[in-house]
Design a protein that fits this description.
Elements (H helix, E strand, L loop, with lengths): L2 E6 L10 H10 L2 E7 L6 H9 L4 E5 L11 H13 L4 E8 L5 H18 L3 E6 L2 H11 L5 E3 L6 H9 L2 E5 L9 H9 L5 E3 L21 H11 L4 H18 L1 H4 L1
Parallel strand pairs: 1-2, 2-3, 3-4, 4-5, 5-6, 6-7, 7-8
Helix pairs in contact: 3-4
The structure holds zinc ion.
Protein name: TatD family deoxyribonuclease
GO molecular function, one term: hydrolase activity, acting on ester bonds
Keywords: Hydrolase, Metal-binding
Length: 258
């Protein structure tokens, strides 16, 4: 059995000293692939170089709202050109974050990147923070048919259903390892198993018991264990379905990459 970490930032400098060991340690835990979500124009080349040398890595490229201050209008044009020249599993990580500044600029860059994904027939990988409801009408109006992944889902069962109805998969990460996350845990416990994916968001979002430490793809095993505890299905069935759903997600970008 194998696991796919569907969301990481393994290209961050915090992995520069031991990236190969980090990937090997994840593989020893059954991790077959690690997907990397882009954050800013300056990171795309690093991501591409890493994946070119390691078939276990896959890339999405985008402009993340955390870095809104540094993004320029010209970066969206550069993203369009970059995606024309490089393989990508999705446009991402993109979205809206109510705790970050420049919300109007976030919104306009988000809309432009949704339009780009639609034009290129690529799914999107979405970041949200206190913006789950706000993003829905934008996805309906501008989002790609290929849907995407709502990364690090944290919300109610009703919000989860709004996303799955729009062809979005639910990224299940470290949040479910915290017992205080009752609403999210209940939503994921009751969701359809085939709309769930596993992720770490390494080096961010440490799981319970590892606060203050760098998160790593190998910890996805603990996320899986926490998910299995929440779900009615047997562990093997959960693992099998998540692996299959991850592979099926890659096909959403396939029409365009061929
Ligand atoms: Zn991320």
């Amino acid at each position: 059995m194998a696991i796919i970490d569907t969301h990481s930032h393994l290209f961050f400098a915090s992995f520069d000293d031991d990236r190969d060991q980090v990937i090997s340690a994840a593989q020893a835990q059954g991790v077959e692939q690690i997907w990397m979500a882009g954050v800013a124009r300056e990171s795309w080349q690093t991501q591409a170089s890493l994946a070119a040398n390691d078939s276990r890595l896959r890339n999405a490229y985008g402009l993340h709202p955390y870095f809104i201050e540094q993004h320029q209008q010209s970066d969206v044009d550069a993203l369009a050109q970059w995606l024309a020249d490089h393989d990508a599993i999705a446009v991402g990580e993109i979205g809206l974050d109510a705790t970050c500044a420049h919300f109007d600029k976030q919104r306009s860059l988000f809309i432009e990147q949704l339009k780009l994904a639609k034009k290129l027939q690529l799914p999107v990988i979405l970041h949200h923070r206190k913006t789950l409801d706000e993003m829905i009408p934008l996805l309906k109006q501008y989002g790609p048919e290929q849907g995407g992944i709502i990364h690090a889902f944290s919300g109610s069962a009703q919000q989860l259903q709004h996303y799955t109805a729009l062809n979005y998969l639910i990224g299940v990460g470290g949040v479910i390892t915290y017992s205080r996350a009752q609403k999210t845990r209940a939503a994921i416990a009751n969701a359809s198993l085939d709309c769930l994916l596993l992720e770490t968001d390494s080096p961010d979002m440490p799981i319970a018991g590892y606060q203050g430490q760098r998160n790593e793809p190998k910890r996805i095993k603990q996320v899986l264990d926490a998910l299995v505890e929440l779900r009615p299905e047997a562990a093997a069935e959960v693992e099998q379905q998540l692996f299959q759903t991850s592979h099926q997600f890659l096909l959403r970008a396939k029409a365009r990459n061929q």
